[in-house]
Automatic annotation (TrEMBL):
<dbReference type="InterPro" id="IPR027417">
    <property type="entry name" value="P-loop_NTPase"/>
</dbReference>
<keyword id="KW-0547">Nucleotide-binding</keyword>
<dbReference type="GO" id="GO:0005524">
    <property type="term" value="F:ATP binding"/>
</dbReference>
<feature type="domain" description="Endonuclease GajA/Old nuclease/RecF-like AAA">
    <location>
        <begin position="1"/>
        <end position="50"/>
    </location>
</feature>
<protein>
    <submittedName>
        <fullName>ATP-binding protein</fullName>
    </submittedName>
</protein>
<keyword id="KW-0067">ATP-binding</keyword>
<dbReference type="Pfam" id="PF13175">
    <property type="entry name" value="AAA_15"/>
</dbReference>
<dbReference type="InterPro" id="IPR041685">
    <property type="entry name" value="AAA_GajA/Old/RecF-like"/>
</dbReference>
């Protein structure tokens, strides 16, 4: 699974922006206080179970049920092999993980999977795959 896009709506200086990170080498370049470290902080927060501290919300934004950080992952062959036991009618190609300021995590699959399957098992398995340390995030 590889991260291909991260979207921000009210995380620190990242009021409303998106970053495509689908490449072999990703570099965040900009002046001080532009939000480079905020991108990495947001990815770490996305993997945590914590609520977002009020100080990390963009000025003027209030905590609500809207996602603050949204990460899109492209599934690879190994991910599909891990999902095969769930006997889904179609295998998802992308997973979008979203987190609200209150710490609620939401997950969508693309293409959507028929919810006639064991939804709890699928969501639990997918979240476990996403939150397991597959990446090396360094500031």
């Amino acid at each position: 699974m590889r991260l291909i896009k991260v979207e921000f709506k009210g995380y620190k200086r990242l009021a409303d922006t998106a970053v495509n990170v689908d490449g072999r080498l990703i570099a965040f370049v900009g002046p001080n206080e532009a939000g480079k470290s905020s991108i990495l902080d947001a990815l770490l927060w996305l993997r945590s179970t914590d609520e977002l501290p009020t100080s990390a919300l963009t000025r003027g934004r209030r905590a609500n049920s809207e996602p603050v950080v949204r990460a899109t992952f492209m599934l690879d062959e190994g991910d599909h092999e891990a999902l095969v036991d769930l006997q889904l009618p179609t295998l998802p190609t992308k997973i979008v993980l979203m987190k609200t300021a209150a710490g609620s995590v939401h997950l969508t699959l693309d293409p959507p999977v028929g919810w006639g399957t064991d939804a709890f098992r699928l969501l639990s398995h997918t979240l476990d795959m996403l939150l397991t340390d597959h990446t090396d995030v360094r500031a």
